[in-house]
Amino acid sequence: MLDEIAHYDRNEILEILKKQKFSVLIDERENGSSRGLYDAVKSTLTKEDVSMSNILGFASDNYSTLMGNESVFQKLLRNDIPTVFTIGCVCHSFAPCSNHAVKSIIPLATNFPAIAPENTLDKIDDEWKLFRQYKDIPVSSKSIPEFWYSMHNLKDGLDHSKFERLSQFMTNVTVLPYSSECVERIFSQVNCTKTKFTNRLKTETITDRLLAKQAITRKGAICISWEPNAKLIKNVVDGSCHRRYMSRLHFKKGGVNEDDVDMYEIDN
Fold this sequence. Notes:
Layout: H1 2-19, E1 22-26, H2 34-47, E2 55-60, H3 72-80, E3 85-88, H4 95-100, H5 106-109, H6 121-133, H7 144-150, H8 164-173, H9 181-193, H10 203-218, H11 230-238, H12 240-253, H13 263-267
Parallel strand pairs: 1-2, 2-3
Helix pairs in contact: 1-10, 2-3, 6-8, 7-8
InterPro entries: RNaseH-like_sf
Organism: Octopus bimaculoides
Protein name: HAT C-terminal dimerisation domain-containing protein
């Protein structure tokens, strides 16, 4: 069942990436080359029909292969996406920008031409100043991205959005990376999953466990309260899940290493 949960969570994430802007976060390891890492990222996105133009930002730890003026990875990324925002793992990097943005948001916005073109800066700034004076901001328990997205729904007397451009800009800003800490957490989870007692687990199995855990967490549930979606239930009932499982067994019996086969391609 874990592989089925992972299968649907992976597809759900891919659909989000195809439709929305996102950032790429990478944790470097000493045995990786800049070009090899970049080719792996690009080929994975291309294979899954995710547009490279949807990448707004890139963050990593400060390995020389990924960060810095001489980084081949950054050069290749900027060749494909000239406006991409890159940052090392420094959580307080936005502090100087935020200090200047109290009265005007332009000093912050000019750093991100991909989401705030020059011809929109004045309008975004006008909405920012209106926002600072606005007295009817609804109290909300929403996350920061959800809050800024919801500001688009505040209308004026002509039924026009009061903060249309500001809402879009701030929502996109929350997509930008500020640290690669979350990638470090994944490596920690891998170490907890593949222990000395489970050291024969295949890479695909570990990936499925991590995706299954993520699927449950993203729904704000725990293992005993999580409810599968209708599509997953349908696949269990009509036998699709079993057929995917049998495909895996077929490769295993044929002596094919799962690590050498794209099992998700088989699943689909």
